């Protein structure tokens, strides 16, 4: 290949995108000089205010005219000037000024792939971190809930203990009340039991044979007791207001008027049973209780 002389460009401001800015200014003269084949910046010297470049048009015969024209009109707001490179551009120099060699291109692709993998790995790590934070928050919530449940169980246990104490206290009070009632009833036990039949010789000793209702004495009209309990389960009158009180074999107390009316006015299968608990009555139905 025959060596060719390029145009050297001096005094280019050392700014970002200097190549693109310079190419834009040179394309203003594209109609006169033709298209640019390539424009390559020289070695970038970061501590210098200006750098240089190599310029070549598609038609190398216009280089002399281009240098004259460009030096005459200049590049606005710069001190850029042009000259023919005294040394011809060699083949090695041409390859050296190429923007990217195959090896560099392969390295760039490898770096881009490594960057992509790194970004993907970063996203995965970020997702794992978010999942770990969520799991940590769930564990913290579970610990808080467990602590609250333990507190509630402790409160419930204390409440159960309190109820047990109250139960024992109430049971003791109930026992005391029962003892008091038993003592009161013992003080008022009847001293005598008088059969309610007028003719004891006619009473049958068989529980299935009852005294005729005509043989039952009518209730007395005079009060013969000082018992203040009650009330009567039939008429609901307190016993202290009843002239006389009777007792069935099963132990239920009624006023004599109610029991007499019950026996006299009921059928046999009815009157032979207690009006309270329906238990079988004794052969003389009932006995009068006297409380002195």
Please summarize what this structure is.
By secondary structure, the protein is α+β, with helices and mostly antiparallel strands. Helices cover 45% and strands 13% of the residues.
Describe the overall structure:
The protein contains 7 helices and 8 strands. With 292 residues, the protein is α+β, with helices and mostly antiparallel strands. The strands form 2 sheets. The chain has a 4-stranded antiparallel sheet with strand order 2-3-1-4. It has a 4-stranded antiparallel sheet with strand order 5-8-6-7. Strand 2 and strand 3 (50-57) form a beta hairpin. The model is unreliable at 91-98 and 189-207 (pLDDT under 50).
What is the element layout, followed by pairings?
Elements (H helix, E strand, L loop, with lengths): L6 E7 L4 H9 L3 H4 L2 E6 L8 E8 L5 H11 L7 E4 L6 H6 L5 H86 L4 E4 L49 E3 L5 E3 H10 L2 H4 L15 E4 L2
Antiparallel strand pairs: 1-3, 1-4, 2-3, 5-8, 6-7, 6-8
Q: Which features does this protein show?
A:
single chain; 292 residues; alpha+beta; 4-stranded antiparallel sheet; 13% strand
The biggest sheet, with number of strands, parallel, antiparallel or mixed sense and barrel status, is: 4 strands, antiparallel
Write the element-wise H/E pattern from the N-terminal end onward.
EHHEEHEHHEEEHHE
Q: Which class best fits the helix and strand makeup? A: alpha+beta
Helix content: 40-55%
What proportion strand? 5-15%
For the secondary structure, the number of strands is: 8
- C-alpha Rg, in Å? 64 Å
Intertermini distance: 156 Å
In DSSP terms (H or I, runs of 4 or more residues), the helix count works out at 7
- Strand order across the largest sheet: 2-3-1-4
Global outline = rod-shaped
């Amino acid at each position: 290949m025959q060596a060719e002389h390029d145009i050297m460009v001096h005094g280019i401001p050392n700014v970002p995108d200097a190549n693109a800015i310079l190419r834009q200014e040179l394309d203003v003269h594209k109609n006169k000089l033709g298209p640019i084949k390539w424009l390559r910046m020289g070695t970038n010297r970061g501590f210098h205010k200006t750098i240089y470049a190599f310029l070549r048009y598609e038609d190398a015969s216009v280089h002399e005219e281009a240098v004259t024209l460009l030096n005459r009109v200049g590049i606005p707001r710069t001190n850029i000037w042009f000259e023919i490179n005294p040394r011809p551009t060699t083949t090695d120099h041409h390859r050296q000024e190429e923007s990217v060699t195959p090896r560099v291109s392969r390295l760039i692709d490898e770096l881009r792939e490594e960057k992509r993998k790194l970004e993907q790995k970063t996203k995965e790590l970020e997702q794992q971190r978010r999942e770990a934070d969520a799991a940590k928050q769930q564990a913290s919530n579970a610990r808080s809930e467990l602590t609250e449940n333990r507190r509630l169980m402790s409160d419930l246990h204390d409440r159960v203990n309190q109820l047990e104490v109250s139960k024992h206290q109430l049971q003791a009070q109930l026992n005391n009340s029962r003892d008091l009632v038993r003592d009161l009833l013992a003080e008022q036990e009847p001293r005598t039991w008088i059969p309610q039949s007028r003719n004891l010789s006619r009473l049958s000793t068989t529980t299935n044979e009852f005294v005729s209702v005509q043989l039952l004495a009518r209730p007395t009209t005079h009060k013969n007791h000082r018992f203040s309990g009650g009330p009567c389960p039939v008429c609901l009158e307190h016993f202290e207001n009843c002239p006389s009180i009777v007792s069935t074999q099963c132990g239920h107390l009624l006023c004599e008027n109610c029991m007499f009316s019950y026996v006299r006015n009921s059928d046999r299968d009815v009157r032979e049973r207690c009006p309270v608990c329906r238990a079988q009555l004794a052969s003389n139905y009932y006995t009068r209780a006297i409380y002195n």
